[in-house]
Amino acid sequence: MDASRTSGGQFLDPSHFLQLQFAMSEKSGDAVDLGHHLSELAKRRKLSPLKGLQKITPKPGMVMLASGTPNPGYFPFERISVEALGPDAFAAAATTVNTTGFSWLRSLFNRTRTTHFAIPRYPAAKGDASLAEALQYGPATGLKMTQEFIRKFVERVYAPAYNNWTTLVDVGNTEGWSRCVLTFCNPGDVFLTDEWTYPSALALADPYQVSPVPVTMDAEGMSISALRELLASWDENARGTGRPHVLYTVSVGQNPCGMTTSLDRKKAIYEVCVEYDILIIEDDPYYFLQEGTYVRKSDRQGSRTLGGDDFIRSLTPSYLSVDYQGRVIRLETFSKVVAPGSRLGFFVCNSLFAERLERCGETATHSPSGFTQGLVVQLLANHWGIDNYLIWLQGLRTQYTARRDTIVDSLLENFEVSMAYSDGSSYLRGLPVYSCFPHAKSSLSRSRNGKQIGRVLSVVPPTAGLFLWVTLHFDALPPPQPSGNPDDPNDHETRLWLRIADAGVLVGPGTFFAAIPSAANPNEGHYRIAFSDAPLETLAEAMSTFSVVVHMYFEEMLTA
Amino acid sequence: MDASRTSGGQFLDPSHFLQLQFAMSEKSGDAVDLGHHLSELAKRRKLSPLKGLQKITPKPGMVMLASGTPNPGYFPFERISVEALGPDAFAAAATTVNTTGFSWLRSLFNRTRTTHFAIPRYPAAKGDASLAEALQYGPATGLKMTQEFIRKFVERVYAPAYNNWTTLVDVGNTEGWSRCVLTFCNPGDVFLTDEWTYPSALALADPYQVSPVPVTMDAEGMSISALRELLASWDENARGTGRPHVLYTVSVGQNPCGMTTSLDRKKAIYEVCVEYDILIIEDDPYYFLQEGTYVRKSDRQGSRTLGGDDFIRSLTPSYLSVDYQGRVIRLETFSKVVAPGSRLGFFVCNSLFAERLERCGETATHSPSGFTQGLVVQLLANHWGIDNYLIWLQGLRTQYTARRDTIVDSLLENFEVSMAYSDGSSYLRGLPVYSCFPHAKSSLSRSRNGKQIGRVLSVVPPTAGLFLWVTLHFDALPPPQPSGNPDDPNDHETRLWLRIADAGVLVGPGTFFAAIPSAANPNEGHYRIAFSDAPLETLAEAMSTFSVVVHMYFEEMLTA
């Protein structure tokens, strides 16, 4: 065990600090002008004509009869009161949330504090939060308190590497990426992405005739050499389109594969992007859920709560920390760290892009919900404060680490396991891979028809996020026989997936996540398994069921 | 006075009921297929690949590990409690909201009931609202309780004239119209709109290269003959684009002019739209704020609270009630009847369009805020119920009627007034117009330089909504003299607007609302004056200030 491991399974690599300090010392000035990346649509957007009213500087006592704001006395809500968990609700690693039976009740008693607050219709004192303000029409940039909180948080946590960075609210990362596609891509454009990627990101871009170009992955996500080769050898005529100028990546807790791109790798990818003039869209919902390298149960040590700045330093930094030119657009959301129903997120990017992204939003969503802004920002900014919010985030990381450990432990327990660093040519290259062979007690464990049964599946435990990515190895199996019904699936991945569902466990089939589904290797199958929701014991049972069905499927296929 | 006037200044025209019944008896079947109206973009949208999971019907007890929903135990919110006004808070016409001084406190005592409720983390009983559900990822169609409430409300209030109408949530009418532009218009398309219209609707469409074609207005909004002539004489070559197939209109409380399109007119426009195969986008935020025909103070009678169905019948019906083919897309919002910060609205349209509009939304906003859905729908659906919500809406109408009456009264008091039905060629044609001449006590009231001073301004009191539209007549004035500074405005409308602002009253300049600003008549100026927010006495004072400045400006121009 590395002695520097201190929290939530996360390794604190001292070289990170040096690199981060170096990156930050490069903070030399403002963003460079990247206006040529704007789409034709983005360039055509004008200021709303009603903004012309801003020519007039309101004087004290001015009667404002220009816009149709209802009198806040007409809002039916008088007062909204909140009872919330304390920020240290999950700080103790021993407390794991469980929604079944009494275990939830039990966990109530482990909490040290509860946060109470209320938002009245009118502010109790000048500057206080009020429903009159939160529920009124507000700026597309969000309420003042939202803006201030986000700005302070970004400054503290990411310390962007140039001066005039800007933040802008949106209604979550899906909407954030949607604005990016409209603002940076013209029809016919292509964008770089990981070879396994978030399918909704592709589905969103597709109708705008903006398509993905997958980049080969390795242990740390996108491969530098693959990226460089792809760009250097780009043939505009053969490809039918110019070289991509946008890179979309989930670099922390990669979706679906779960790996995290190191600071070194980020710096190297950033330099390629500088060389080829590419924007980086960093979709980063799992940043604070960095669970670190998986350690087998027998070798695992406890974690302890870190101070806010130590917690920040324990996290692999964002692309923002190396972005000295302002070519990163970070998408962050409260969905995974507060609640998905918040529909609140934000951009961090250069001010020129922020202005265009604001124009894009003001004529669509207008602004995030005032209920959300009032309740979420009041809780985080005014009742917890950033230091306590960092304790909350650290508590969540502890929770997700326990979940990641449980699901990986449970899967490995059901197989004979060997760990090695893969030298394969796939995205696994260089990763610590747990190869899973049939369980010794299973009839599969013997050789069959004179053929030795090799590994059935392999797994690379995630280092962040919500998902376990499992690779099935179907090499030993005969090709699936057609059932006679053309509606039936004719590949092992889908057939096995349906069997697992039949046994009561629904996982995500791997093909959903392929940037180019037709490029998938038919001898491999994948499943994305979310460990974010079910109680720990259910996760363990589900992995046992999963493993039994995998054993049975292989047995049946080899017997047939 | 017409004896049928019963509530909130609204005339109940018995022929409306017959027409409505006739329209409803035409409800003969399902929507016709209007799929050819979809834009190329809309046709390209695919089902999200993750929806493929829906192939699997979840069984009881199935462990769901396919999607990354966080465990609701990780949401920091334990319980949100609400204190709200009772639904009858504004039912008595005498109660008017006032945010200054003690008048607001006073109005507290007029309320008969307060509504209290709380949403806990977990449902108290099966089917109850909970934060666990509201704050989780939810369907793009909204929470089940939201869907049910909206469907019941639409059925009760609008009774759409075909069977398979569908409702779909959005985050307000701006976003609703944004989805319509993307779903029905290709770049280069034009759409029909009122000659004076909501500028943000144009600003939204403009960067998509979708532009307005203004239709002349009269007393009831869009003129049938002008619409028919425009379409019949459409010259594709001269116009450079095909005949418009989308009509955008705010037909109740027209923004900015304030008139309301009658059911007869709606039926006639609808028939033109059937003939020319045009979709009607009905942007209708002010539907429940139908203040009816303005009656001068001396002739005014009190209003009384109607039962829910009588209230519904007192409202000029929506285009939905004549839409037997499914070519109306209604946009409705909670912004003006609950609070703008809700960012919650909905479509009512045919099911084919609803499906495409859902696809458009699911890859952008995803769904409205769960805080909003939880709090707003719990209040309206479960704690008030539709009957009480109708009382709330009627109370708001009473409030806005009092506001409309106050602002018009105050304006007219400051001039010598004559009322007549206009026979002008402008949008005023056929309307009861109040012509305002200089006040008898003003030095302006005399003839000047041998020239008789005619009407200074005219006003057509709005019948619904939040805005008073005032027309200034500059005919008698010499053209504005250039100031020498090229940045200074060189038209009377802007110069007078700045003077009014200088005197402490900010109104909206008319040019902002012209569908084609360059087409405006230089001898006329307009201001849109919002009466939705300021206390009644402030509205009265502001109109006095406004009138003084108008008198002074004319005086000065005629003396110079």
UniProtKB/TrEMBL annotation, chains A, B:
SUPFAM superfamilies associated with the record: PLP-dependent transferases (SSF53383)
GO molecular function, one term: pyridoxal phosphate binding
One Pfam family it belongs to: Aminotran_1_2
CDD domains cross-referenced by the UniProt entry: AAT_like
Domain of life: Eukaryota
Family matches, as InterPro entries: Aminotransferase_I/II_large (IPR004839), Class-I_PLP-dep_aminotransf (IPR050859), PyrdxlP-dep_Trfase (IPR015424), PyrdxlP-dep_Trfase_major (IPR015421)
Keyword Transferase: yes
UniProt keyword list: Aminotransferase, Pyridoxal phosphate, Transferase
Reported cofactor(s): pyridoxal 5'-phosphate
UniProt record similarity statement: Belongs to the class-I pyridoxal-phosphate-dependent aminotransferase family.
Protein name according to UniProt: PLP-dependent transferase
